[in-house]
Design a protein that fits this description.
It is a single chain. The chain is of the alpha/beta class. The protein has 2 domains: about 80 residues, no CATH class; about 170 residues, Vaccinia Virus protein VP39 (Rossmann fold, 3-Layer(aba) Sandwich). Strand 4, helix 12 and strand 5 form a beta-alpha-beta unit. The longest helix has 27 residues. The protein is elongated, with a radius of gyration of 23 Å.
Length: about 280
């Protein structure tokens, strides 16, 4: 089942609710008996409670350690009299990096070298079979263009898109391996996109294009292979979009996350430390 959206707000709500219960109970205990539990013990209990409550709110497992240590970490940092602007800078950096996690439940995941090598092996040697995507057919019908005119606008070579490309690792790696192809990275988190853009400038690869924004607004019809390492949240919508827009014979690849109700046509297991699985759907 897809996880709820706005996980950052849910994590904050879990902390506030648990903190209210823990410190409210401690205040009542102190008022009634004079017993004052140690502050760090209360903060540790708040972290445990927030981690448990966060899972009930639908947060992913990787939120658990964050919820556990957050109250105690803030308390330990307080005596150091850290300037307020440092907290502001850290907050802004976290927002810029984990923008997608806060907005749509998509953390920043990076594809490792073995996964990139597996993706290279899955790329077709040539571009698609020439069939026009569903979206392109509709556009041609409205504009009066023929399929031949539309295809002549495109250069030959496989067309690959990485949705949520992060720092740009897969598209840069694949572009070096396949100079005949065309590789597009789409990223909506500001800081990862900026770093990917800088990496591309230094790499000097002419067959890579980076797009800022949500992949839903860019469309998938022009690609032969679409790769996504997102989260369970957007996968059902992404699958529907791919079925609607991508041309027959194209390939949708998801790292780790499958689509409920739509078994993959093929699964590729990667021999890495996290035992990565690539789910493939041939559309």
């Amino acid at each position: 089942m897809p996880r709820p959206r706005w996980p950052l707000l849910r994590a904050l709500a879990a902390q506030l609710a648990t903190g209210a219960v823990i410190f409210g109970s401690a205040f009542g205990l102190a008022a009634g008996t004079g017993i004052r539990p140690p502050l760090m013990a209360l903060l540790a209990l708040q972290g445990i409670g927030a981690a448990v409550l966060g899972t009930r709110f639908g947060l992913a497992q990787w939120w658990i350690p964050i919820q556990l240590v957050l109250p105690s970490a803030l308390a330990l940092a307080w005596p150091w009299q850290v300037p307020e602007w440092i907290f502001l800078v850290l907050f802004v950096l976290l927002v810029l990096v984990f923008w997608n996690s806060a907005r749509g439940g998509v953390p920043l995941y990076l594809s490792n070298p073995r996964t990139r090598a597996a993706l290279a092996a899955l790329l077709p040697q040539e571009a698609g079979n020439g069939e026009t995507s569903k979206r392109t057919k509709q556009e041609e019908a409205g504009s009066g263009k023929t399929a031949t005119e539309s295809k002549n606008k495109n250069k030959p070579g496989v067309r690959f898109a990485d949705l949520g490309c992060g720092l740009g690792g897969p598209v840069l790696d694949l572009a070096r391996r396949r100079p005949d192809g065309h590789f597009t990275g789409i990223e909506s988190a500001p800081l990862p996109f900026a770093l990917a853009w800088l990496r591309l400038r230094f790499a000097g690869l002419a067959n890579v294009k980076l797009l800022f924004g949500n992949y839903r607004s860019h469309g998938l019809g022009e690609y032969d292979v679409v790769y996504a390492f997102l989260s369970p949240v957007p996968m059902p919508d992404l699958f529907d979009q791919a079925k609607q827009e991508m041309k027959s014979g194209s390939l949708l690849i998801s790292n780790t996350f499958d689509v409920p109700g739509h078994p993959a046509d093929e699964t590729v297991e990667i021999a890495d430390r996290r035992q990565t699985s690539l789910y493939l759907w041939r559309l």
